[in-house]
Inverse folding.
């Protein structure tokens, strides 16, 4: 069940050093918190006949029709209305990479395949450091080789 018709695609920025799954989970948690906190509709009320003292006094009691809320609709009683959302990632970014990736919510997950099959152009910006080589070709790998540069050869 899609939460209140919540479906579609949206872009999310992922900073470097954070796994894409954690970003996805954070988005799901935030959406669920907002969906469960938002008042979906006015609380149901029920008519009850409550005994009240009669205006004349003398210990007489009369029944008066009163509207009282149905406590079964209270969030503390029923718990969260939405517990899980279907959220999928269109593509995944490495932990060390930063950038924008697409998330699909609800029926928007079906559109992720179409988006992937479009073969959209991706832009990569790569940084490097001249003169150092590591065992895994990353900035956090063990240094294997170091060299100097900067002198012109004529």
């Amino acid at each position: 069940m899609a939460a209140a018709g919540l479906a579609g695609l949206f872009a999310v920025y992922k900073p470097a050093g954070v796994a894409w799954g954690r970003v996805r989970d954070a988005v799901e948690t935030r959406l669920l918190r907002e969906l469960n906190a938002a008042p979906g509709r006015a609380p149901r009320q029920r008519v009850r006949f409550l005994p009240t003292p009669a205006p004349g006094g003398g210990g007489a009691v009369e029944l008066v029709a009163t509207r009282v809320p149905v406590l079964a609709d209270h969030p503390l009683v029923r718990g969260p209305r939405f517990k899980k959302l279907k959220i999928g990632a269109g593509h995944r970014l490495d932990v060390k990479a930063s950038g924008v990736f697409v998330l699909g919510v609800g029926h928007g997950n079906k559109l992720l395949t179409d988006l992937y099959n479009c073969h959209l152009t991706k832009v990569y910006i790569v940084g490097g450091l001249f003169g150092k080589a590591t065992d895994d070709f990353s900035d956090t790998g063990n240094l294997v080789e170091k060299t100097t540069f900067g002198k012109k050869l004529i």
Remarks:
- The chain has a mean pLDDT of 83.
- The helical segments are 20-37, 75-78, 109-117.
- The beta strands are 8-14, 45-53, 61-69, 87-89, 99-105, 132-134, 143-146.
